[in-house]
Amino acid sequence: MMPSLFVAHGAPLLAIENNSYTQALNQLASQLPRRPRAIVMFSAHWEAFDQLVGTMETFPTIHDFGGFPQELYEIQYPAKGDEAIAREAVQLLRDAGVPVGLNTTRGLDHGHWVVLRHIFPQADVPVVAMSVNPNLTVMQQYMIGKALSPLRQKDVLIVGSGGTIHNFSYLNMRETSEGTFDWALQFEDWLQQTLTAWKVEDLARYRELAPHAEKAVPVYGSEHFVPLVYVMGAADDEQTAQRLHMSFRYGSLSHTIWKFGEAR
Question: Which family, according to UniProt (predicted)?
């Protein structure tokens, strides 16, 4: 079966950068068991109360940011949609009792295309866009991912795009030699121990159990963290987790890649 993946999308500049993280993204496709039929992808930048499943004949590229080099606004990622997989995802969610709707108008935001253009640069794998709801409990988010798990048996790659640490209040934009903040490393270490041991109940209590959770995942900014929970749930049938990459920018902005549900 296909694994499910969590990938951090960092800052939009990641789309045109060459560093250890983008190099790791560039290698991801070759590490999959086969070429995916389609990608079902949760983006932190598409929030909705009900679960929305997006499909279009060809997705427009949304440049949902400001103040960056013109080069970024000229990037296009014209991925095709997959209506059959989108409708199957809708049915799986309905069968699980999840309020869900089909969206046929929204393009791919930078949470989608910034990382996809590194993983599949030709935009030649169809995409099904998925919204996130940070107002749900961790267990509710996990169960949404679990409901989609059967898609992995059909060579569908389930991806969550966000950031395990994403808090603008703790970014060091000067990139000094001081490196990564200790508290960020401690949070990521706790997360690695929790995910690899598949302690879902501990993950559900990360705000009280994880060191420095209030810095890593601000209370009103958890939308970047929750894609991790969806894709972990999508691998509930195998319950294996492996962190493939971790690096940082600006002292605390974590670039992590997690693989779930494939034997290590």
Answer: Belongs to the DODA-type extradiol aromatic ring-opening dioxygenase family.
